Amino acid sequence: MAEAHQAVAFQFTITPEGIDLQLSHEALRQVYLSGLRSWKKRIVRLKNNVITGVYPASPSSWLFVVIAILATMYTRSDPSMGLIAKIQEHLPASGSLSVQCQTVVSAVVFSTMLWLSLIFTMKLCLKQLLSYHGWMFEQRGNVSNTTKVWMMLVRIFSGRQPLLYSYQGSLPNLPVPAVKDTIRRYLESIRPLKSDSEFERVNTLAKEFEVSLGNRLQWYLKLKSMWASNYVSDWWEEYIYLRGRGPIMVNSNYYGMDFMYAIPTPIQAARAGNILHAVLMYRRKLNKEEIKPSRIPGTFIPLCSAQCERIFNTTRIPGEETDTVVHWKDSEYVAVYHRGRYFRLWLYQAGRMLSPREIEYQIQRILDDPSTPAPGEEKLGAFTAGDRLPWAQARKEFFGSGVNKRSLDCIEKAAFFVTLEHEELDKKGDDPDITLDRYAKSLLHGKCYDRWFDKSFSVVIYKNGKNGLNAEHSWADAPVVSRMWEYVLATDCFHLGYNEEGHCKGDVNPSLPRPQRLTWDIPSQCQERLAQSLSVAQVLADDVDFHVFAFRDFGKGSIKKVKMSPDGFIQLALQLAFYRDRGMFCLTYEASMTRLFREGRTETVRSCTSESCEFLRAFENGEDVEVCRRFCRSASEKHQQLYRLAMTGAGIDRHLFCLYIVSKYLGIESPFLKEVFSEPWRLSTSQTPVQHLEMFDFVNYPEYLICGGGFGPVADDGYGVSYSLIGEDIITFHVSSKHSCPQTDSHKFGKQIRKALGDLLQLMTNNQKEASRSEQNHSPKPQSKKEL
């Protein structure tokens, strides 16, 4: 308990002579420095709020306006047209000021009002400019004059150096599509999946909904859109994520991987030291808003950054009916799990961030700790992996007071969660493909009790130095976490680095207080419920079938050469792979983003279209090559059109979802909406874009290949596919399904994807030899000796 004594700033004892007061100057110094850091953060936050509030103007522009008004008055002109005189008449302290001072004060007040009016006008103009999306539907290289003028105006009104949240007040609200447009697009999307009789039945339900209940529900949505900044996001978070009573492990959480081949150091504590320090560096930049706002790649169009606010110090709290997401302003420690024990690791001392070497030293102390878990402690995390209702009830009954509450608070209020695995991820001589599959499963669910799935994200460090993360989904979507993780990996390897022995650089401070072991008192009744939650989670985890691979035969560079959208090309390949695998078409989900709008999250692109089905039939039936090429391009262009509509607020599923929620609030059953939400997504796909490509060099350092991440299957009889376009020549895929379904096999589907990609490129290119390489796997061996 040395750390507890060091935390005491003073001690006193009562003696016959009086009170003997003993002050600890070192402890008082630590308190002072921690308070100083807190006040610095408050000042930085206040400064950033001012800068963001007046954006696209700058605080210094106020002085310019004041000087301009005073200079104009000096020439005996009145730019206010009498307003300064009116202000002067109503000054509260006019009797104690000279006439000249009254005039100056009145001029400053008028200048400030004028300045604020100009800022409001500029924000309004920028908001209107960002509401224009016609540029997205124009052909590349054929830009209209309207778009050229718009681009020039956006640049003028955007300012020079925006902070992370500078654009938030200027982003437009998500528009509510017309009911008839959404229904028309919906019917178009299901046409290739329905027989004539089935389609006619759904069409009748849709038309009845459009002319009757739809308009009534739409009125409520329009009312909400005028009041709220986003008519979808709060309901999406609550009803899709927080009200779900099933396990969030596998079903909701997702993961992000380390480098595919390289391990910068085999020393677990050293890798943890650099990774945790890099995460703290990102958090510091985030708090100072020094991270540049996200933009659409290749443009200057900003995206909403609201999801960044809850990356750190955030936890999902279970409830009996619905969970809640709780965010704390700051946290100076992380919760660490190792060999069934929980620790609190402070990452700051005296207001200073610990260095990577100091964090390594503290992590090594945890690894060397010989203590054993308390009864029930080892598998406590299984509560977060099982059903939500038992966890909510157990939390209320067994963790509402005493030592259990204090320890649980420590985990939930931590900046994030860290798991130190005591096993190596891979063994010498293992098949790399099998290792990647095992790696994905480990990150997604682990042992079902060695992650805290409720935390915003958990960092996992393996014994051989490999790492990854698991993220909770309700508070943000994958691109937000992916952006942070790319920064962390690049900073770890290319900026912080390691010494020759593989340890973190820098010196060790041996006087650091030891990490604090959390204590628990878990009764037998609680342990029985914990075992039940673990049993539910284990069945779910064992059923997950994963296959991860890097497709190296070609990448987006070759796809662009045949003048096709890389994403559209891959989506067609996935459609072709599924058609060959199952002999049928299916409702396909592709995640798009709506972050062009304030507080926007995602929208669904229904990738299976009449055009794609027409192409697949022609291609599989061996029709003429030119006919297949024409159908392929038509299908790709249709996909791109749907993607653009989804991004600009004209999607299908979020609108129908909100109409469904309103109908439930009104207590009205809609046969049409019931039909819509009974359809399974047998193919759920998502692209994870690389956002910090400039921080990596895949040509000179091919072993440092980032691998993206993945998620579990959405349907029991379907596939989940996540993919990333890495550089110009690599595409990584993460394929998931369930062992319990005899119709799905992730490895078999992975082979179908490889073949489909090659067949499509062979169809679309004139160089048949280049395309035929897709049947072979030319994965070069990593140059680093520290291979996976």
UniProtKB/TrEMBL annotation:
The protein's topology relative to the membrane is: Multi-pass membrane protein
Indicate, by first and last residue, each region the UniProt record lists as having compositional bias (Basic and acidic residues).
770-788
Q: State the Gene Ontology terms under molecular function.
A: carnitine O-palmitoyltransferase activity
- Its Enzyme Commission number(s) read 2.3.1.21
**Top-rank taxon, per record:** Eukaryota
Where does the record place the region Disordered? Answer: 766-788
Where is the chain membrane-spanning? 50-74
Is this entry keyworded Cell cycle?
no
Q: Which GO terms describe its biological process?
A: carnitine metabolic process; fatty acid metabolic process; long-chain fatty acid transport
Q: In which pathway does it act?
A: Lipid metabolism; fatty acid beta-oxidation
Q: What positions does the domain Choline/carnitine acyltransferase occupy? A: 174-754
Q: What class of enzyme is it?
A: transferase
Name the residues annotated as catalytic in the UniProt entry. H473 (proton acceptor)
Coiled-coil regions listed:
none
Location comes to: Mitochondrion outer membrane
Tell me the ranges covered by the Carnitine O-palmitoyltransferase N-terminal domain, including all copies.
1-47
- Catalysed reactions listed for this entry: (R)-carnitine + hexadecanoyl-CoA = O-hexadecanoyl-(R)-carnitine + CoA
User: What keywords tag this UniProt record?
Assistant: Acyltransferase, Fatty acid metabolism, Lipid metabolism, Membrane, Mitochondrion, Transferase, Transmembrane, Transmembrane helix, Transport
One GO cellular-component annotation of the UniProt record comes to: mitochondrial outer membrane
Main location per UniProt?
Answer: mitochondrion
Q: Which family does it belong to?
A: Belongs to the carnitine/choline acetyltransferase family.
Write down what this protein is called.
Answer: carnitine O-palmitoyltransferase
Q: Which organism is it from?
A: Pygocentrus nattereri (Red-bellied piranha)
